[in-house]
Amino acid sequence: MYLLDTDFLIASHFKGESTSRVAHNFAQANFSNHDIFYIDQVVFELATVISHKYSQKEAIEVSHDLRSKKKCILSLNKYDLEEAWQIFDQQKKKGCSFVDCANLAIAKSLGLKIVSFDKFYKKFGVDVLQ
User: Which terminus of the chain has fewer CB atoms gathered within 10 Å of its CB, N or C?
Assistant: First the structure.
């Protein structure tokens, strides 16, 4: 079972992204027999990034598509949220994403593999797509 990060979802929806081909190939090879999930905070972040980078119209379309797949959306419970804050509080580098920390918390809680291009996850032993 896979937990999708914002950057992977954006690469999956926009062919102009430098990681689009890798995302498409990974999805084709891995998602047919596995469940995929994303946390609701990823949808929030994705909408903001797409609105800034592409357009508000595309942000609405993509976020609506993701929100319509209700069985894929996970919400953090109070324990996952506390774990996410603990991970966040331990970070020293400027620009840490709380959403990445939340992904780590819920992936750990549910035993999910995170699918991302973000190098942040490597220090936690999470494989990152190349």
Answer: C
CATH number of the domain where residue 28 is located: 3.40.50.1010
pLDDT in tens, 27-72: 999 887 778 999 999 999 999 999 999 999 999 999 999 999 999 9
DSSP 8-state assignment for residue 112: P
82 is a domain residue:
yes
Query: In the chain, how many domains are there?
Result: 1
Question: 49 with 10: CB under 8 angstroms?
Answer: yes
| Radius of gyration of the CA atoms of the chain, in A | 14
Query: Is 129 inside any structural domain?
Result: no
pTM over 0.70: yes
Q: What is the pLDDT of residues 80-128, one digit of tens each?
A: 999 999 999 999 989 999 999 999 999 999 999 999 999 899 888 876 6
Location of structure tokens 């357009």: 55
SS3 state at 73: strand
**Segments forming the whole domain that contains residue 54:** 2-124
Strand pairing partners for 83? Answer: none
